[in-house]
Amino acid sequence: MNISCSPQGFQTPHSAEEVPFYLPVGNECALFEAAYRHRLPLLLKGPTGCGKTRFVAHMAAQLGRPLFTVSCHDDLTAADLTGRYLLKGGETVWVDGPLTRAIREGGICYLDEIVEARKDVTVVLHPLTDDRRILPLERTGETLKAPEGFMLVVSYNPGYQNILKSLKPSTRQRFVALSFDFPPPEVEVEIVASESGLPRERCIPLINLANGLRGLKGVDLEEVVSTRLLVYCAILMGEGLDPFQAAQVALVEPLCDETEVKEGLLELIRATY
Ligand code: ADP
């Protein structure tokens, strides 16, 4: 698997000048900074689309560290993170994976949805997440010592948990952990307005609707409307799309397939738009 052009979300480092917009919900920025200063690995828990990735991007830029983001999936192995020998122009050369690069460059490595990755990934993470802060690279014979600037951040969505896919307690307890959830309405209005450009007064009914949808009892949905989907919806509304249709394509169709469940959600949307 070729990391640099794979769909694993491996990104080029952020430059410190551009700090991605992030509106804090509590004191998570101070907590992140404290963890960074004391070289503590950080675990972010929370539903998809609630701002975890944006938070890490914001903090990395604030702290002036390059960020290496990896979206984990069930084929992701330790070698995808550490690196491998590849054939280049007839020669075999070692190519660092994103974790190794983050260590060499003193950056922040963010492993999104860590529980999706293969089990051998945790073996690599253990010596990095205690006071040794080392990464042994068996294939090259090196043992890298993480510099001060290196920080490991991982995330997972507790809503997806099952017995086969969960973080082992011996791995979890190596991290300090922050719980995320969808922002309170007054914060979410500001986020959606800022991200979409839709006027604030038009975002207010949308956020109220979202909270109504999130609170619907007896509706069988794996996931609820995320802040990300609200931003999409507001963008479509800002484009002049009929609000009902915008809500249908951004808030209903991405979340469910069953006609009856969709009807339940659409009924609530009709009451607003
Ligand atoms: P997650 O990583 O939790 O799945 P993201 O960080 O990708 O979610 O958030 C999805 C989108 O929601 C972001 O791209 C951004 O537009 C918006 N968002 C969510 N929370 C915030 C926040 N606190 N400040 C700014 N934007 C936010």
Automatic annotation (TrEMBL):
Any keyword Nucleotide-binding?
A: yes
Where does the CbbQ/NirQ/NorQ C-terminal domain start and stop, copy by copy? 188-271
Q: Print the keywords alphabetically.
A: ATP-binding, Nucleotide-binding
Matching entries from Pfam families are given as: AAA_5, CbbQ_C
User: Which regions form coiled coils?
Assistant: none
Presence of the UniProt keyword ATP-binding in the record? yes
| Xref: InterPro entries | ATPase_dyneun-rel_AAA (IPR011704), CbbQ/NirQ/NorQ/GpvN (IPR050764), CbbQ_C (IPR013615), P-loop_NTPase (IPR027417)
ATPase dynein-related AAA domain: residues covered: 41-175
Q: One MF term in GO for this entry?
A: ATP binding
Homology family? Belongs to the CbbQ/NirQ/NorQ/GpvN family.
This protein is called ATPase associated with various cellular activities AAA_5
